[in-house]
């Protein structure tokens, strides 16, 4: 299903301030402005080009391919990035000159499971982790999304959607709150309007909707936008899954201030260097671990393990400890791939130096 509207038709009526530009960014941009560059925010990133918004309206800009971007996909521009554009002159369109420093970044492991991470969105202030109440709750998936959100540096808010399809929303909210320490949990319904006002107040700045297909992200986004700008699709009754009605990430200004980042439903969210995010997501386990007898306790079978003791008494669900262990292993594996890539890069540099020295010695030998 195609997207019902394009940001280019709406962008000219907005200014950079509507997209989050502030005085701090203006001060940081001063050297770029002195060099004749103009500030912009990427609303949609594509291969070789991007759509961006400037104070003069929406523009399409060329994105030069670089070795750094190929070596590390995280360096490539993405939706939400603030950038410096060189105005069109001899070239037919503006050119992206620099990506400004990111305040936050939602990063997951790449689909190829390489050592690199993929930036889903940049400069996000609030992450709305959407969970449908019309389907069985999958806490492990919620914990994974929360770890990604906490690691980004943004503030996560768990949004329980489709409350009208749930027989006991209070019980469901309490259940989710137990796996989301430190995050607000809001119950909403697009059918009845329940919780929409509270949600609007809780989601501030640049807001990213994060969740699987069928969780009601696009419907939720339309409520926040105040009009039907995002495509929605039906959900299969057999498994509660929906089609990917959003095919790209895009920024849309919200009527009450702030910016909405509409993203595709994610079939898989692999963690990438998310140690801090895991500690925040499993803050209850981390607090218990402080009372373990051994500082390096693995919470497996060690004597004096406070975490295992909490599982035995029912204070900590065994499922939550299993999820904690599984995500820690996944994150450690991702870190080991990154370390291996760094080691490989260092070895390649050493070999190049050695080859250069050998060539130099051979040349000197021929000159004698």
Give a description of the structure.
This is Small ribosomal subunit biogenesis GTPase RsgA. Its cofactor is Zn(2+). Helix 7 crosses helix 8 (283-289). Helix content is 35%, strand content 20%. It has helices spanning 23-34, 67-71, 139-152, 169-178, 196-202, 217-225, 275-281, 283-289, 306-313, 318-367, and strands at residues 38-46, 49-54, 57-62, 82-86, 95-99, 105-109, 117-122, 126-132, 155-161, 184-187, 206-210, 250-253, 259-262. The protein is globular and about 70 Å long. Among the domains are: 7-101, OB fold (Dihydrolipoamide Acetyltransferase, E2P); 106-262, P-loop containing nucleotide triphosphate hydrolases (Rossmann fold, 3-Layer(aba) Sandwich). It has ten helices and 13 strands. The chain is of the alpha/beta class and 368 residues long. The strands form three sheets. Strands 10-9-8-11-13-12 form a six-stranded mixed beta sheet, with helices on both faces.
Envelope shape: globular
Strand order of the largest sheet: 10-9-8-11-13-12
Unreliable spans: 1-12, 236-247
What characterizes the major β-sheet?
A: 6 strands, mixed
Roughly how many Å apart are the termini? 73 Å
Give the helices and strands as they follow along the chain.
HEEEHEEEEEHEHEHEHEEHHHH
Spatial extent as radius of gyration: 24 Å
Query: Could you estimate the helical fraction of the residues in percent?
Result: 25-40%
Strand content: 15-25%
So, CATH architecture of the domain at 106-262? 3-Layer(aba) Sandwich
Q: What is the β-strand count? A: 13
What's the CATH H-level superfamily name of the domain at 106-262? P-loop containing nucleotide triphosphate hydrolases
- Helix tally equals 10
CATH fold descriptor of the domain at 106-262: Rossmann fold
Mean pLDDT comes to 83
In the CATH hierarchy, what is the class of the domain at 106-262? Alpha Beta
């Amino acid at each position: 299903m195609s997207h019902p509207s394009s940001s280019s038709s709406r962008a000219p009526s907005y200014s950079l301030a509507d997209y989050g530009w502030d005085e701090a960014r203006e001060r940081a941009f001063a050297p770029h402005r002195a060099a004749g560059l103009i500030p912009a925010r990427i609303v949609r990133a594509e291969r070789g080009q991007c759509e961006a918004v400037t104070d003069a309206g929406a523009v399409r800009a060329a994105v030069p391919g670089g070795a750094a971007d190929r070596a590390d996909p995280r360096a490539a521009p993405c939706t939400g990035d603030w950038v410096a554009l060189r105005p069109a002159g001899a070239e037919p369109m503006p050119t992206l000159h620099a990506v400004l420093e990111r305040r936050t970044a939602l990063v997951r492991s790449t689909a190829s499971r390489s050592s690199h991470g993929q930036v889903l969105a940049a400069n996000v202030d609030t992450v709305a982790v959407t969970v449908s109440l019309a389907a069985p709750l999958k806490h492990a998936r919620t914990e994974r999304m929360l770890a990604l959100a906490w690691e980004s540096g943004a503030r996560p808010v768990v949004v329980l959607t489709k409350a009208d399809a749930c027989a006991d929303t209070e019980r469901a909210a309490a259940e989710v709150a137990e796996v989301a320490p430190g995050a607000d949990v809001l119950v909403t319904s697009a059918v009845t309007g329940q919780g929409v006002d509270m949600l609007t107040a809780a989601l501030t700045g640049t807001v990213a909707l994060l969740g699987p297909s069928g969780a009601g992200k696009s419907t939720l986004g339309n409520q926040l936008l105040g009009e039907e700008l995002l495509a929605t699709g039906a959900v299969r009754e057999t498994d509660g899954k929906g089609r990917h009605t959003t095919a790209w990430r895009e920024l849309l200004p919200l009527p009450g201030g702030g910016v909405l980042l509409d993203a595709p439903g994610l079939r898989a969210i692999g963690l990438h260097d998310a140690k801090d995010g895991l500690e925040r997501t499993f803050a209850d386990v981390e607090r218990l671990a402080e009372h373990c007898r051994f500082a390096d306790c693995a919470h497996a079978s060690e004597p004096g393990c406070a975490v295992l003791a909490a599982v035995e008494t029912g204070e900590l669900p065994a499922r939550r400890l299993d999820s904690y262990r599984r995500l820690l292993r996944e994150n450690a594996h991702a870190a080991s791939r990154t370390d291996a890539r760094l080691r490989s890069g260092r070895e390649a540099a050493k070999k190049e130096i050695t080859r250069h020295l050998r060539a130099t010695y051979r040349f000197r030998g021929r000159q004698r």
